[in-house]
Amino acid sequence: MLRAFFLFLARQEGFKNFALQFRIFRNTASRFVAGETLEEAISAIRQVNQQSISATIDLLGENTQTPEDAESACRDIMTALDRIEAERVDCNVSVKLTQLGLALDTELAFQTLSRIVERARQKGNFVRVDMEDSPYTQRTLDVVTRAHERVDNVGTVIQSCLHRSQQDVINLLQRKIKIRLVKGAYLEPESIAFRKKKDTDENFVKLMRMLLSSDTYHAIATHDEAIIDATKEYARSQSIPKEHFEFQMLYGVRRDLQVRLAKEGYRVRTYVPYGLRWYPYYMRRLAERPANVWFILRNFFKD
Ligand code: FDA
Question: Per-residue pLDDT tens for 235-258?
Fold first, then answer.
């Protein structure tokens, strides 16, 4: 219920303008967002790298309304790729296709993504295409598959909350496309998604096993310790080496667990978002955990 409410608010510009007036709202966002500038993001990535953890950088932004905005996002992401190389940080990039124009025109998103993937290829880097809500699932998979036919340094994300995901995993595995497995951060209709958390979690474990058993390098992205333990256990039981996959987690969430896994010799990558357009991302993080909301409410009247 609370989750649905916050995911609804994530789409409301009016609430955004209201909430931004409050310092506590802006200040707590900094727990999940590395900063508003690329400089701040690079500095956060350095700190992450110092703990033997890789990073993936995300220029915040989604649902771009004009081709000019898509072009501007493309240029900023290519600048980020240049800086990653110049600063010698261990980091790849994550992008959202609606930021690159998918809501306007699929071809525009494909062409824009292709330029980013090509720049990343020249630099020996990798591009992960995040998965957005279900109206974009098929188009995202189509665009990524097409881009992957040209060069293979592009992968995508599968959400275990969707009924269709097992078949999508089978299709992507056939093409050796790298997958980041997540539970799913959007509110989806009951007709296409699991309603109960238990079912999403069970599907996650099933898909995790399919990924680990394949010959492609994938990412298991969750902060759920039971699922992380199940992943470690499955890898051990099948003699799958630690270098064959990685764990991924979000900036500002379970840093203790990230460091612990890295110390145990697992590959870990932190998702580092930055930029001015942090509102919807932040609201999705609040929706994931009621404790985050209570923290804000408790401090609200002190503001
Ligand atoms: P779950 O929600 O069950 O949480 C397990 C535990 O983790 C909680 O009990 C709590 O301790 C901790 N936790 C989780 N979220 C927290 C938060 N916000 N604040 C504090 N603690 C928290 N989704 C998507 O739809 N498309 C995408 O492309 C991506 N990309 C992506 C990249 C990476 C690296 C990660 C880690 C996640 C995503 N996600 C995503 C988000 C994902 O779908 C999911 O919403 C979150 O990871 C939360 O789910 P968990 O798997 O952590 O489990």
Answer: 999 999 999 999 999 999 999 999
- CATH 3.20.20.220 placement within the chain: 37-277
Whether residue 181 contacts residue 221, with contact meaning beta carbons closer than 8 Å, is answered with yes
Query: Which CATH number among 3.30.930.10, 3.90.76.10, 3.40.309.10, 3.20.20.220 corresponds to the domain 37-277?
Result: 3.20.20.220
Residue 302 has pLDDT above 60, yes or no: no
Helix crossing, 67-87 with 106-122: angle to 10°? Answer: 10
**CA dist., res. 13 & res. 67, Å (int):** 21
Quote the pTM value: 0.94
Query: 49-74 burial string, b = 16+ CB within 10 Å, else e?
Result: beeebbbbbbbbbbbbeeeebbbebb
Q: Are 40 and 67 in contact (CB under 8 A)?
A: no
Q: Which residues line ligand 1 (CB under 6 A)?
A: 130-131, 157, 159, 182-186, 221-224, 248-250, 253-254, 271, 285, 288-289, 292
